[in-house]
Design brief:
Layout: E1 2-6, E2 13-18, E3 31-36, E4 42-51, E5 54-63, E6 67-85, E7 88-92, E8 99-101, E9 105-120, E10 126-133, H1 135-139, H2 147-157, E11 162-163, E12 169-170, H3 173-183, H4 189-213, H5 225-240, H6 248-255, H7 259-270, H8 274-292, H9 297-303, H10 309-320
Antiparallel strand pairs: 1-2, 1-6, 3-4, 4-5, 5-10, 6-9, 6-10, 7-8, 7-9, 9-11, 9-12
Helix pairs in contact: 3-4, 5-6, 5-7, 6-7
């Protein structure tokens, strides 16, 4: 099985990646490789991790200009796609309409082979996370009696490419946490495979639960599109400046809304309050610092905006069930 990426004019093949049949290699529990983003006219990387039945891809790219690439793949697959940052538009004869992703959105696809063109904007860094699985693996988890799920299952049975919903869904904090756990996993061999497989299933569960909780059209029940955009703008402000302690009123004013709409809308989209999201973001960053950067508890506490290390330790224990000093043990 292969994936091929061509330049805009189709004359230059930038990448041809070959995989074992459904990523199965009898001599390895987990296989990994990384591609440089130089082929995409920018900087960064795309990292792959795969094992039997599952392919995980994470891209972190900064493009020097708007880029159009042509993709071909030979897989029959269900893809869980998460646009962590950046904007992209994909067109293919396999789908009736263009597939558009803005930051903080996700959806699920089924393709039986794929050929199409993706337009990536260089305005913002591009971060994407995707998981490919066999249809047989996913089908047993899809609920029955829901319009979107039933149509998606039928498409897989007929081997017709399909997108689960014409509307994308917001990535919640719990989803971000699982994605970060997968990206940051340091286990090796069989233990890494067991860990990753459990996180993949948990992430699929969150996707399906969220979709099931929305109405059959996959739309938010009370927010206008402009308000949805404002909620994502607040999330971006928090992501970029999580050390700041802006009030709800200040955040609302920055994106052109009011406190009531911000409180109600943010929780409806992300399933969590603004304060809970901001607090979780800080503590997840602290956990990564403790694990990867070797900083002291006092240094981490100061870097994420806690003036008192004791208050930081108490919040950390409440969030993760352990004290910060236990992370390194």
């Amino acid at each position: 099985m292969k994936t091929r990426i061509y330049g805009e004019d189709l004359n230059e093949m930038l990448l041809e990646a070959e995989y074992p049949d459904w990523f199965k290699d009898p001599e390895a529990s987990v296989l990994e490789r990384t591609f440089s983003a130089d082929i995409f006219l920018g900087k960064g990387y795309y990292k792959e991790t795969y094992f039997e039945g599952v392919h995980i891809g994470y891209g972190n790219l900064e493009l020097s200009k708007n880029t159009i690439l042509n993709f071909e793949s030979e897989f029959e697959t269900v893809e869980m796609h998460f646009a962590l940052n950046g904007h992209m538009v994909t067109d293919s004869d396999y789908f009736k309409d263009s597939i558009r992703f803005s930051p903080g959105s996700h959806n699920v696809f089924y393709t039986n082979g794929f050929k199409g063109t993706t337009n990536w904007s260089s305005r913002y860094p591009l971060r994407m996370f995707e998981i490919n699985m066999t249809p047989g693996f996913v089908e047993k988890y899809i609920p029955e009696g829901h319009q979107l799920f039933d149509a998606f299952r039928k498409a897989m049975e007929n081997q017709q490419s399909a997108i689960l919903s014409k509307h994308n869904y917001p990535i919640t904090l719990d989803m971000y946490t699982l994605i970060n756990d997968i990206i940051q996993c340091t286990r090796v061999g069989l233990f890494k495979r067991i860990f990753l497989e459990s996180k993949v299933i948990a992430l699929l569960l969150l996707q399906l639960e969220q979709i099931n909780s929305f109405d059959a059209k996959g739309t938010l029940k009370s927010l206008k599109k402009e308000d949805v955009d404002k909620m994502y703008a607040v999330k971006e402000l928090l992501d970029m400046n999580f050390r700041k302690t802006d009030s709800l009123i200040d955040l609302a004013r920055k994106v052109g809304t009011n406190e009531y709409t911000l409180k109600k809308g943010f929780k409806e989209i992300f399933g969590i309050s603004v304060f809970q999201y901001w607090k979780g973001l800080r503590l997840d960053t602290a956990k990564t610092m403790l694990l990867d950067e070797g900083l002291s508890i006092q240094e981490v506490s100061r870097k994420i905006g806690y003036k008192n290390p004791q208050h930081f330790s108490a919040a950390f224990k409440k969030q993760f069930g352990i004290v910060p000093s236990s992370v390194r043990n």
